[in-house]
Amino acid sequence: MIPLYFTEDHEWIRFENSIATVGITNHAQEELGDLVFVELPEAGGKIIKGQSVVVVESVKAASDIYAPVDGQITQVNEILSSDPALVNQSAEKDGWLWKMVITNEQQLAGLLDAEAYRKFIG
Amino acid sequence: MGNTAEKLKILPLEDLHIKARAKFGAFSGWNMPISYPVGVMKEHLHTRCFSGLFDVSHMQVIAMEGPDIDAFLSFALPLDTTTLFSGQSCYTYMLDEKAGIIDDLMITRLGKDRFIAVVNASNATVDIDEFRCRIANFNCAIRPLNHIVLLSLQGPKAAEIMCSLGFSNEKLTFMHGYEPYDGWLVTRSGYTGEDGFEIALPIDVAHAFTERLLADHRVQWAGLAARDSLRLEAGLCLHGQDITTETNPVEANLTFAIPKSLRGKAGFVGADALSKALITPPVRLRVGLKPNTHQPVRAGSMLFDENGRQIGIVTSGGFGPFFGGPVAMGYVATSCARPGVKLFTNVRGKMIIIAVHSLPFVPQRYFKG
Lengths: 122, 369
Description:
The structure holds two protein chains of two kinds. Chain A is an alpha+beta fold.
């Protein structure tokens, strides 16, 4: 089973073959509503936990998506530039935001598992 | 905006919104449906293509009556009520002595000495206090109505839907209204740029009437978020953002609401300042703005000319689902207030081009008969 982690900022992290894929949860996209723009970072950038990496814009407002762990961005989901609604349609799969290598894997231990996240959102 | 620590007021139809699984949020002291599970985008498009139903019971309805009512209204508002016949509505605003806009409102004459006004929820207390202050020397009274439901049915199918419920309306044109039953008022008006109706009705019959509307498959609930994106596409102002006590009707491009017969006359509050504003070239003007990217530009963003000089500010900004891109409005220096003029704004460190655009962004489709 591929390890899946969640944050209290409503992101999910799938850690597979040393690469973490990051996105927002289905609960988060429901709360945000229809997205009309996703501002993606450049691949290659170093990011630290808590730093704003992506900005998603709904019809009404802009929201920051934060780095859940330290690392370096290896790829961004370019499809979202032309189809931001993909995040609404498939938040936890096709609507992923970026992939990254993790500098400090121990940070993963501080994140929530699926069960704990479910409890967190009630 | 509502203070969440305060107890929010509850809409009389809240149970219907809960049943429709609305997402709620605080607005002007009310717990309001912001959107429904289909999402703001579909609510918006459904309203433009079929019909959206809005619960706007948070807005304040005020009954006004008495022998001096015409004289009072022509003093309290920049209005010549003698030109309004029974059943006719008009858009107007309440000015302060500097001709700043205290609020904008709709007013409908219901009879020889009877009117109904609908004012913004966010300004209800200020408006009522101000009306009470201005009424002192007149033999008439205002009465805020707090036990009614106000619905707004908007969109190209609204007329057919109302007709199917027994409200014939082929003779009811935009900005006209009537009282179909005791305690009801139906006006052909709205805040979306579409044909539509605003329906005030007593609470005790509101549930049944609303459920009859919702039984029509062409009707979809639409929340405050869609109301905001629809009015922005239609180029309509939101008081508190696009117009405030710091803006006058001339720079807000709202002089259409002042009857020609009133210009230069001094009979209403704010007349002197307004007369001055009408003959002085305005320093700034309200315009539509269209960002050149897919990225929305939000209220409060500063606008710069090509030399980096600040020449304006965005007062409303978001996304226009029917227009198919980001839309905004704001104030710019008069020299820049022409469609096509390229301006710049800074979005999170990046300068993007935003062009002055004509208003509305989508054609208004009012029923003029």
